[in-house]
Amino acid sequence: MEKSYCPIDTFINAVKGKRKGTIILHLSQGNKRYSELVKLLTDISERMLTKQLRELEDDGLVIRSVFPEVPPRVEYSLSELGKTIHPFLKGMYKGGLLLEKSLENNSPQSP
Predict the structure, then answer these.
(1) Could you tell me which residues come within 8 angstroms of residue 57 by beta carbon, excluding any fewer than 6 positions away?
(2) pLDDT tens digits along 51-76
(3) Strand partners, 60
(4) CATH value at residue 56
(5) Which stretches of the chain are DSSP H helices?
(6) How many domains, in total, are found in the chain?
(7) Cα 7 from Cα 10, distance rounded (Å)
(8) Which of 15, 25, 44, 52 is spaced 20 to 30 Å from 79 by Cα?
């Protein structure tokens, strides 16, 4: 994560990407195994999910824990920083719902 000219841009750059905000919202509900995240995020490929998880880990928002078992078990959880930014993402989620509702109310009616 790079510091931007404006702190808002720094925040957005950290959470923008294919479903990063959604990943953080799911992890706020508790630790998730990779397979659980795959089932929750059906609209992105496993390759893209892995890429986004690595970026979130590199940015210090997500913690990846590998358990020495056979087969290896990997769990993802929010770091303290990830937990701290969660309320802001939740606010963005609510704002998105308001905007979607507004778009539905203002869309032209089909005959």
Answers:
(1) 63, 64
(2) 999 999 999 999 999 988 888 889 99
(3) none
(4) 1.10.10.10
(5) 7-15, 20-27, 34-40, 46-58, 80-106
(6) 1
(7) 5
(8) 44
